[in-house]
Design a protein that fits this description.
Structural class: alpha/beta
Helix content: 25-40%
Oligomer: single chain
Shape: globular
Largest sheet: 6 strands, mixed
Strand order of the largest sheet: 8-7-6-9-11-10
Number of strands: 12
Order of helices and strands: EHEHHEEEHEEHEHEHEEHEH
Length: 240
């Protein structure tokens, strides 16, 4: 019997325009009402969970989704498993972060490359440069409402006293993608999940699988009682 459903967001719950449809939301609500623990499991940070899913759970808003989403979910695996959060109790159940000095070193090595750069820190999403930030808001719409635009990511992280949940690098061509792989090859303390246009970099101790393992242990749910749905390279860890 399935007790927990770990479900990816982008590419799985969202359409090609990064929208969550009524049909998808209805199915997730039915699963929750049937007693299944629905767990959004995403490369996104907590502040950028799809707005229709977050309505009434993570954010107060005046939409029809608010009441319908009541008790839809309580636990969220974010930043590719770097954080597992009980949003009801506002508690961190698991964390595996990139050390600040490692994040700064990677950014320094990438300084001469033509990457779009973003970072997740303390559940917040930081994007470097106005053009890159504006492009993200066009693509992700309301989901990107909480994005913070910064001039220089290295400067922001150097002034911070926090380690980093995730770094993201967007590359215009496959040439830059291969260059990023070359740069990261000397950092065994991190791993990366790639798509055709960007890479998500997170601690070697973070993955959707490790986050799911920590959460299921916390809830006392066995592996045979878990279902996972996803479409990307970063989802393979929770399938394993």
């Amino acid at each position: 019997m399935i007790k927990l459903l770990a479900i990816d967001m982008d590419g799985t719950c969202l359409d090609q325009r990064s929208r969550m449809t009524d049909r998808t939301l209805d199915v997730l609500r039915k699963a929750a009402k049937a007693g299944i623990t629905v767990v959004p499991c995403t490369g996104r940070n907590l502040g950028c969970i799809p707005h229709r899913l977050a309505a009434g759970v993570l954010r107060e808003s005046k939409t029809e989704d608010d009441e319908k989403n009541k008790d839809l979910f309580r636990y969220v695996i974010t930043s590719n498993g770097a954080m597992v959060t009980d949003v009801k109790e506002k508690k961190t159940l698991f964390r595996a972060l990139i050390k600040k000095e490692d994040a700064l070193s990677i950014l320094s090595d990438c300084r001469k490359e033509k990457f779009g750069i973003a970072a997740h820190v303390r559940h917040r999403y930081f994007a470097q440069g106005k053009l890159f930030t504006s492009a993200g808001r066009i693509v992700y719409g309301k989901d990107a409402a909480a994005v913070c635009c910064v001039r220089n990511m290295e400067e922001i992280l150097s002034k911070s006293d926090c380690d980093v949940e995730e770094l993201q690098f967007y590359f215009p061509t496959s040439k830059e993608k291969e260059k990023l792989k070359e740069i990261l090859s000397v950092y065994p303390q991190v791993k990366a999940a790639y798509t055709g246009i960007y890479a998500e970099i997170f601690s070697k101790d973070a993955s959707k699988g490790n986050g799911l393992k920590a959460l299921s242990a916390h809830l006392g749910i066995e592996k045979e009682e878990i279902a996972c749905i996803g479409d990307g390279e970063n989802d393979s860890f929770m399938f394993e």
